[in-house]
Design goal:
Strand order of the largest sheet: 15-20-12-21-22
Strand content: 15-25%
Low-confidence stretches: 7-12, 345-351, 626-639
Number of helices: 15
Oligomer: single chain
Number of strands: 24
Shape: globular
Distance between the termini: 42 Å
Largest sheet: 5 strands, mixed
Mean pLDDT: 89
Length: 639
């Protein structure tokens, strides 16, 4: 028979997401782990039953959702139930006495426990990510390894009797490891600066570069110049911004790949579904790209069903909408349809039909939409037919003329469209409090013939970023606006510190200034989640989940006296024509690139693309050798 689990107190677009079930020894109670609710449901089956009760799987110090119980196991005598809190790196211990669940405490584990079993008085805990990642290359070695291949699972063996005996200190360790205490949320601005002058936030999400690939040539910071692929000659604007507003050389993207990275970048957490499914999606073609509001090549929102990929705590725009804040959205979690492409979910009679428009592509010399100026691009620029929001809070809040991930659509045109609306906001004095902008072209199209070279694609992206900062800093909103820029993930390249380390910029009038001619270098540990919490704190928004709630804000990036001058974009790569350079049939990697799929983020084999990029930029120089983390031999039962 079926049992309906009551919905969360705050309805979301996510399901309760049952992830595991265990039947009690007497077959009278069914225990169900609910990842999206941090609870285990106990369903009475005896006497016609069906009555359901819920018990949290987290310590009382944990006030926010984000533990994700996704596996269950019971003790041999049935008196204890264990629940793997995947996102908390712990196992909850619960009593089942009298048919009532009661949380007793937690046991620490390695990264992302995903399966449990009890045998011979031992609790076995399998984790999905083990001890995590480390460096994935160094320039004086021989080869490079794809970042997700650095993640290994692990199996721990814990004596049940010992676990129960040591439950109190173990629980305290879990609390401390997860930083379940009040994180810094108040900014300390310089003397003479208002308590919080920031009223507007612009958030730019880019695509897939590591720190060393771009900023490894900044000598004042921790970089490896041998791993630089898109240095200052290709990215002059990002280098100038880092030197003016501060270098973050210890910043890490929370997502390993775009499938998880775009969720992390907008929700500060992922769903258990995402973490389980992306390795399957990325190892081959077993599944579709079930991310960014799309599942099985359809949009759940349009079908009127929950998105299995959505965290129950929602996204930044959910947070903004709940608190009646103004926001505008450009290309993120928006699905674009293009003129001339096949109709997606067409009825049988229309299969093979194409989206009809006056023209499908804009060739060089033809007028560009909006500006009417002649296209300078030597490749065909596709014409946008329609945008569809994949989340309900975005309907009515996104720019219908700003496309999603489409690499043949220049980032300069994305910048043009954003600045068209921004200039309107300036004129009308009605700039939204929050704006999210997608700038994806630093992903590159490899050496695909007719498409921009890798250097041209990254230079295009760099100038688009520079133009946005230039416009904002020269406007009357410079006094109260902060701009945050990051990559959704760092999978496509090597880094000598960690495969997650990436570029990030925090830009405002209140940024720290250069001292003695040297840039301010912030080497404090920060991640995507810290950046999200910082944006929330500036706008006076509460945190969404257990991750952003306990992540310290990036306070030092607002420690200046409010004297940062306006930024002038560096247009050297526009003037010298780098932005318009294209791959030819003779380009290194052209044949391999022809076989790759660039229809959406990470549609192709990332390892193949990364080898192509390395050869295209570095020539015959050997790829960096992978640096694996060494696993110590087990030294005891708790290992």
């Amino acid at each position: 028979r079926r049992f309906r689990l009551s919905p969360p107190e705050k309805p979301t677009g996510a399901s309760s997401h049952p992830t595991a079930m265990v039947l009690s020894r007497d077959h009278n109670v069914l225990y169900v782990a609910l990842a999206n609710r941090d609870e285990v449901a106990s369903i009475r089956l005896d006497n016609g039953g069906g009555n359901t009760e819920f018990e949290r799987t987290t310590p009382t110090a944990q006030k926010f959702i984000g533990a994700y119980p996704n596996a269950l196991a019971s003790s041999p005598d049935g008196k204890l139930l264990f629940a793997a809190n995947a996102s908390q790196d712990s196992v909850a211990v619960m009593s089942t006495q009298g048919g009532k669940l009661k949380y007793l405490g937690s046991l620490p584990t390695q990264w992302y426990p995903t399966a449990l079993a009890v045998a011979g008085g031992q609790l076995f805990v399998a984790t999905g990510k083990g001890v995590g990642t480390g460096p994935n290359g160094a320039h004086d070695l021989k080869s490079w390894v794809y970042a997700p291949k650095l993640e290994y699972g692990s199996i721990a063996r814990i004596p049940v009797a010992e676990a129960v005996r040591d439950l109190s200190p173990s629980t305290q360790q879990v609390i401390e490891s997860n930083l379940y205490r009040e994180a810094q949320r108040q900014f300390t601005f310089a003397t003479g600066v208002d308590k919080n002058p920031i009223k507007h936030v612009i958030y730019v999400i880019k695509e897939n570069r590591t720190y060393d690939q771009v900023f490894g040539d900044i000598k004042e910071a921790n970089g490896d110049p041998g791993l630089v692929m898109f240095g200052e000659n290709v990215t002059p604007n990002q280098h100038a911004l880092a030197r003016q507003f501060g270098v973050l050389d210890n910043f890490y993207d929370s997502g390993e790949v775009s499938g998880s990275g775009h969720v992390w970048s907008t929700a500060a957490i992922t769903s258990d579904y995402t973490e389980r499914i992306w390795p399957i999606s990325y190892r081959g073609r077993e599944r579709t790209y079930d991310f960014e509001g799309n599942v099985s090549n359809s949009i759940p929102l349009e079908l009127g069903i929950p998105d299995v990929n959505e965290p129950s705590t929602g996204y930044l725009w959910s947070n903004l909408a709940r608190h009646q804040r103004s926001y505008r959205h450009y290309g993120e979690f928006v699905q674009s349809a293009w003129c001339g492409e096949a109709v997606g979910e067409a009825p049988e009679a229309l299969r093979g039909a194409k989206i009809e428009c006056p023209i499908d592509n804009i060739e060089k010399g033809m007028p560009l939409p909006g500006s009417g100026t002649a296209s300078p691009y030597p490749w065909k620029v596709p014409v946008l037919a329609k945008n569809t929001a994949t989340k309900p809070e975005l309907e009515g809040h996104f720019d219908p003329q700003f496309p999603d991930f489409q690499l043949s659509y220049p980032d300069q045109m994305r910048a043009d469209e954003f600045l068209r609306e921004f200039n309107g906001f300036v004129s009308d004095h009605n700039m939204p409090e929050f704006m999210l902008v997608r700038m994806p072209n630093d992903h590159t199209s490899g050496a695909k013939v007719g498409m921009p070279t890798p250097q041209a694609a990254v230079a295009d992206n760099d100038l688009a970023v520079g133009r946005i900062v230039e416009a904002v800093s020269h406007s009357n909103y410079w006094n109260d606006t902060a701009i945050f820029i990051l990559e959704d993930d760092a999978q496509n390249g090597a880094d000598h510190v960690d495969s997650h380390r990436s570029t990030a910029l925090v830009i405002s009038k209140y940024g720290p200034r250069r001292q003695a001619g040297k840039p301010f270098v912030e080497s404090g540990f920060y991640t995507t989640v810290n950046m999200i919490h910082t944006m929330e704190a500036l706008l006076g928004l509460p945190p969404m989940n257990a991750n952003d709630a306990y992540a310290p804000i990036m306070n030092r990036m607002f420690s200046g006296k409010g004297s940062q001058p306006a930024f002038d974009a560096d247009r050297r790569n526009l003037d010298n024509g780098l932005l318009y350079e294209t791959n030819t049939p003779k380009s290194v990697g052209a044949k391999a690139s022809a076989k790759l799929d660039f229809s959406h983020a990470d549609a192709n084999d990332a390892e193949v693309l990364n080898r192509i990029l390395w050869r295209a930029v570095k020539g015959k120089q050997r790829e960096p050798k992978p640096v694996y983390r060494v696993f110590p031999k087990s030294t005891g039962d708790r290992e």
